[in-house]
Each structure stands twice: as structure tokens, then as C-alpha cells.
Specification:
Blueprint lengths: L2 H13 L2 E8 L2 E8 L1 E3 L4 E7 L3 H8 L2 E7 L13 E10 L5 H13 L4 H4 L4 E16 L2 E6 H11 L2
Antiparallel strand pairs: 1-2, 1-5, 3-4, 4-7, 5-6, 6-7, 7-8
């Protein structure tokens, strides 16, 4: 992946506030929208979700998920050339009394301070969405795949 593609992937991960989250719901694909924050040291995304949402039960039943981030739509870019990244990940709930939860909570609230009220609700949970692979489409004929240590290194670099 060249420097421009890496910069685009970093920008999508750090500037886009919401993602499409794909889960397996009763044997069928389901997609929902979730705000997220990158946790670079742990090479994961963090999402804060309600037990009332079907995707929360889905992640508990089937932790493998997919996440889609797209660039902003503009008249200057054809929809087929819209920069985007599809991520394959494993979603893991964070235990409320763990140090990982406390760190994740601080990181999430730094990006979404209005979420403070939902952290007081018993039905909300933090999930670590641990990235396994990425497929970046940077435009027509510009697609890149990244997995394993190269993906982990790019994520760690976001926090540097």
C-alpha cells in the first residue's frame, strides 16, 4: 500500500465519526450504524451499544463482524469511486470493571462527550472491535488489502 493509500485509510479511521456495522442476525445479514473511535495502541475500534439494539445480541452470538467506512459524498466524486474501507473484525465486550473498559470509556468520551449519559445506563456496553483485515478502495482501479502486522502497524501509527 502506497503512502497516499495509507494516508486515506488513516483519515477515514480518524475523521469519520460513524460506521456501518454488519452482523449476523438470526442467520441473515444485518447492518446498523454505530459511532466509533479508534484505539490505536490496542489496534481496535471502540463502539458503545445498547442491549436493546439487535446488533449487540448479534455480536455476542457471532463475534465476527464487518465494518464499512466511507468518505464524504461530493458532486466531484462518482459514487462508484467513493473512497471506502471494509474491515473484518472480531467484536469483544469489555468488562465494566476492567482497566481496559476504563481506558476505552475515556477514549470514547473524548470523541463523543454527549455519550456520558448513556454510560450511566445499565443496558449500554463497550465493545472492542479487533481488526483482522482491511480492504481499501481509494478510487477506480485503486484497491488495497491489508491484514496482520501491516494493518496493526498502521493502526498503532495513528496514535503516534
Amino acid at each position: 500500500m502506497d503512502a497516499d493509500a495509507c494516508a486515506l485509510l488513516r483519515r477515514l479511521l480518524t475523521e469519520r465519526p460513524v460506521a456501518a456495522l454488519a452482523t449476523l442476525h438470526r442467520g441473515e445479514p444485518a447492518i446498523s450504524m454505530v459511532p466509533f473511535v479508534v484505539s490505536p495502541a490496542e489496534t481496535q475500534l471502540l463502539i458503545h451499544v445498547s442491549a436493546l439494539a439487535t446488533h449487540t445480541r448479534d455480536m455476542l452470538d457471532h463475534p465476527r463482524v464487518s465494518v464499512l467506512l466511507t468518505d464524504e459524498i461530493s458532486a466531484a466524486i462518482s459514487p462508484q469511486a467513493l473512497p471506502r474501507v471494509s474491515l473484518v473484525a472480531d467484536a469483544v465486550p469489555l468488562e465494566r470493571d476492567s482497566p481496559a473498559y476504563l481506558t476505552a470509556r475515556l477514549r470514547y468520551l473524548a470523541r463523543f462527550p454527549d455519550a456520558l449519559q448513556t454510560f450511566g445506563l445499565a443496558d449500554f456496553s463497550l465493545f472492542a472491535v479487533r481488526l483482522q483485515s482491511a480492504r481499501l478502495v481509494a478510487g477506480f482501479g485503486r484497491a488495497h488489502s491489508l491484514a496482520g502486522e501491516p494493518l496493526q502497524a498502521l493502526l498503532r501509527d495513528i496514535g503516534a
